[in-house]
Amino acid sequence: MNNNQILKNTNAKLLDEFNASVMFDKELYAQDIKGSIAHSKMLALQDIITVDDQEKIEAGLLQVKAEIESGKFEWKIEHEDVHMAIENRLTEIIGDAGGRLHTARSRNDQVATDFALYVQDKSIVIKDKLKMLIETLVNIASKHTETLIPGMTHLQHAQPINFGFHLLAYANMFKRDFERFESSYQRNNNCPLGSAALAGTPHNIDRFKTSELLGFDSPTACALDTSSNRDFALEILFNISTSMMHISRISEELILWSSYEFGFVKMSDEYATTSSIMPQKKNPDVPELLRGKTGRVYGNLVSLLTVMKGLPLAYNKDTQEDKEGVFDSVKTMEISLDILCAVMDTLIINADVMEKACKVGHLSATDLADYLVQKANIPFRTAYYITKDVVSLANKLGKDMSELTIEELRTANDEVANIDKEIISYLDLRNSMNARTSFGGTSTQRTKEQIKSFQDWLK
Ligand code: ARG
């Protein structure tokens, strides 16, 4: 071979590899076979193929499936994609009847169907895992409705809350995530198959039958839209991104809380790793990875949004780029939910340290202001400045506001010089937490109500 021939051969091989998706879209083999069996059944019911051929096709496809699952199937670049690979093998096994399977469909509606089935299947798996995580959080929360922890804004001590309430904030996030997967599932539960290449088909097909056989609610409405619609994939990427953002936020708190400075929690040894150089160290690698993996799922979302943004109707090969990011995000989401669940389940909670931390930063300052508003009808803004003096006094005495005696407090300024001694109980941290009885508030009672409604929802 001369140089030109070598170059030509290399180019041909490179092109095949460049064009092929089989090495990653083989992930869709089960959906592809399921879709083909349903399609063949519909074709037979409509007398487009014979029952005999349909039976051969179905048996052949099940054999291909068994070969794939036992690792015997040979995936080859020259088959280009999962659809051609399976159809080729089917025809090898059953002969001519295999060639009738592709009647009244195109790879365009075929891949859209496989991918939609995949996304729908995975939404259910993810929803189950989200539920497991919510259950774990609610369980821990139910044991800590009286455990005080400093509630923060701007990462500064703000008001005392209970640790159960803190965890319920995350349970609420994950419940919204659950509902988001659920509503995407409902919205996208339509069957693309039978849209054919872009415009439908002259064959007398029954798309409602195919849709029913595959468990969709109905066929998609418009063939032209269907063959290049990837909204369902974008939705799962967005849903995963939002959920990973929540996972990342709780991970960030776990990292902070397990630091020496906080010491609120300790991660079980299985989930903390050691340093290769500093023998004394325990690192929170697991929540750090959960936080880090959030970046890549965002990337997958932006990547597909970008792929789709300039596509003219209808199918374009660009959309072959839709799959790897979704597979990656789905896997990342699944493992992240499992791991976070296990981390939470084995978390050691240092309630004493949390409570002690509440005694720093005058967490009950707002309670004094609220007291003055309620008992003395002072405008809140005025009460705010009066309270500020008490904060300064406490700082001067080197005490937390919750530790002031009534005699000390009364010296802060003229406005509080005669304040009733009952104020002291209002400044107590646990009383402060329990005073927040408004709906959705942190009081132990309200927290228990929230837990109850989560438990009802989980049933
Ligand atoms: N492998 C292709 C994809 O993932 C399947 C559809 C191919 N259709 C076509 N007209 N080339 O998008």
Structure notes:
The protein is mostly helical. It has 19 helices and 6 strands. Strands 1-2 form a two-stranded antiparallel ribbon. Helix 3 crosses helix 8 (207-213). The relative contact order is 0.10. The mean pLDDT is 96. The structure holds arginine (ARG). Arginine binds next to helix 6.
Brief sketch in words of this structure:
With 459 residues, the protein is mostly helical. The chain has 19 helices and 6 strands. The structure holds arginine (ARG).
Secondary structure layout plus pairing:
Blueprint (H helix, E strand, L loop, with lengths): L2 H17 L2 H4 L3 H17 L5 H19 L12 H13 L12 H37 L4 E6 L2 E7 H25 L2 E2 L15 H7 L4 E2 L3 H4 L4 H27 L7 E2 L18 H24 L14 H23 L2 E2 L1 H7 L7 H12 L3 H18 L8 H5 L12 H5 L1 H7 L8 H15 L1
Parallel strand pairs: 3-4
Antiparallel strand pairs: 1-2, 5-6
This protein binds arginine (ARG).
Arginine binds next to helix 6.
Class from secondary-structure proportions: mainly alpha
How many separate helices? Answer: 19
Major sheet: arrangement of strands: 1-2
Largest sheet: 2 strands, antiparallel
Kindly, what is the distance between the CA atoms of the first and last residues, rounded to a whole number of angstroms?
71 Å
Mean pLDDT: 96
**How many distinct beta strands?**
6
State the helical fraction: 55-70%
Q: Which residues form runs of ≥5 with pLDDT under 50? A: none
Query: What's the SSE pattern?
Result: HHHHHHEEHEHEHHEHHEHHHHHHH
Rg on CA atoms, Å: 31 Å
Q: What's the overall geometry?
A: elongated
Bin the strand percentage.
under 5%
Bound molecules: arginine
